[in-house]
Prior knowledge:
This protein has 389 residues and is α+β, with helices and mostly antiparallel strands. Helix content is 27%, strand content 25%.
Amino acid sequence: MCSFGYNPVMDNQIIIIGGGASALMLASLLPKNTATIIESNPKLGEKILISGGGKCNITNTKMGTEFFLGDKDFVAPSLKKFSEKALLRWLERQNLEPVIKKETQYFCRDSAKELLDIFTKESKKQKIYLNENVLEVTKRDEVFYVKTNKKTHTSKAVVIASGGLSFPKLGASSIGYDIAESFSHSLVKTAPALVGFTVQKEQFFFKELSGVATDVKITVGESVCEGALLFAHKGMSGPAVLDASLYWEKGKIEIDFLPDFSWNSIKGSKKQISSLLPMPKRVTKAFLTQFSIEDKIASKLTTEELRSLQGLNHYIFAPAGTFGYSKAEVTKGGVDTSEVDSVTMMSHKEQGLYFLGEVLDVTGRLGGYNFQWAFSSAFSCSKSIKEYT
Ligand SMILES: Cc1cc2nc3c(=O)[nH]c(=O)nc-3n(C[C@H](O)[C@H](O)[C@H](O)COP(=O)(O)OP(=O)(O)OC[C@H]3O[C@@H](n4cnc5c(N)ncnc54)[C@H](O)[C@@H]3O)c2cc1C
């Protein structure tokens, strides 16, 4: 008997909640007519299309648990079973050969649509419901009841592949966490990640540099993030900042605005300081103004002025916050992985309930790590969940 007062729809034996990256990989790997995808958006994989600047950064030549926040022992088995090489081989069989950009990152050659087309084609072998919003999951007598805004579906297994809270305009919702809690799972506090920082009054001058980028090294606790910092209208963004946001909770960060620069190299120079420091001139000038130092020739700098400038190697301040979920590429935190099997992705709390991808407390750095995790966790699940097909 249905718990919601109307007749449930008997679908395939596995219901996948969400039609994003991890769901589509799972649906592709499972035998025909064994799974049902329920997606709230009118289309599948909307996030894939806009990812990686429209070219989808699929994975990375440098792969390992060190690129992930979360329990590394939980991440390891999936990464081992479905590594970046295995993923690339799978894509090659589907006639997709990603190209390497930015030294280590694999992207679609022309457009993220190349990847989405593969998933759309592959997942056609499963049942798909679009524009259907999952509201609740309950279980009675070994049967799951998946209630949506349209009907109630039943199945023997349920896979939560509904992602995190980032980018609500593309369908993100808290449903994965709500379902997890309703089955007595614990959650690790969530926060926006791979996101820019807003700044406090002392750093408001960053906003005037909006659009300018410079290479930096950012230290957050034990973690060091290198790459470009992009000054932004709201504060700061860019790859190094996005990575730093993964490790930041509250409190101070340290930025080295002049990594690999030797102050000895400008000793006695007759050139103006703004021409000597390896940063965009506008940035150097903004800092000179902040430190009340004239843009003079290097040899004329007083010891005190030089010391102030050397502070650019250790510029310490506390960001005000982040740009929030509307701009964050991912959500850190999520379903506590100590309550999920690292080999099968099945819940330790409820037989037949599985979790994949971003809804789990696993978050990768910038560079294709989050898609790799979505695909690797889907692969692990695909092996074990077959018993329900
Ligand atoms: C702008 C942007 C760029 C990114 N670029 C990259 C990149 O280049 N490389 C990379 O590795 N990662 C990137 N990411 C991160 C990556 O997209 C995610 O980590 C990944 O998609 C997570 O996969 P998932 O399957 O767990 O969740 P998602 O792909 O988010 O899929 C979850 C799906 O569940 C659906 N859903 C949610 N609630 C409900 C509900 N109640 N009922 C039914 N359906 C529901 C959502 O609509 C969504 O389609 C990017 C993210 C963003 C926002």
